[in-house]
Amino acid sequence: xxxxxxxxxxxxxxxxxxxxxxxxxxxxxxxxxxxxxxxxxxxxxxxxxxxxxxxxxxxxxxxxxxxxxxxxxxxxxxxxxxxxxxxxxxxxxxxxxxxxxxxxxxxxxxxxxxxxxxxxxxxxxxxxxxxxxxxxxxxxxxxxxxxxxxxxxxxxxxxxxxxxxxxxxxxxxxxxxxxxxxxxxxxxxxxxxxxxxxxxxxxxxxxxxxxxxxxxxxxxxxxxxxxxxxxxxxxxxxxxxxxxxxxxxxxxx
Length: 253
Prior knowledge:
48% of the residues lie in helices and 13% in strands.
């Protein structure tokens, strides 16, 4: 172990020792940003960057387990990403499929897909469905894998689901207009039944949400980290938790 690693380890332990686990966020959303830029800086390909980012996910979930986080939402592929060249998108989908299979096979986490399945290739849809089915009874961290996800698309899908549901029940348009509410729309989101994210982390230095969990993050705290996702370290995670614990959440008040 070199001096840098020793100092890093001591600092990480110091930050963790000062964490109040009662103030740890129960639901963390993570925008895994910077894979391609990390690869470019390292002299690698985009696919190598995406693979390095995928390899980091289990590390993150391990850190979450150690700190009593209960729900983690990982944004792996946005609806905007479908505009990327097929030469990049096809390998990326393959990496996502392998990652989701690995999470399910590990047996420690419950996997749940959030996003629009119909936008994805049939094979990717199958992998996501099988992972959900295989982990449905696992009593571990709930891992939302956001694949083919867009925040505006989610809201549109929720409203569509609400309308179809009440149409099937015979609810008139006038009656529906009377009962529609934010709570009712929330019941039709991809994350229905789950707590909203307390903390949203974005790596790579970008300071925007890009549509991530638009509805659910209304009262979330945000933490923007300079490092690219594949280089995200345990101490970066602990700093995010420390920063969150130091804030006073007002929930719009």
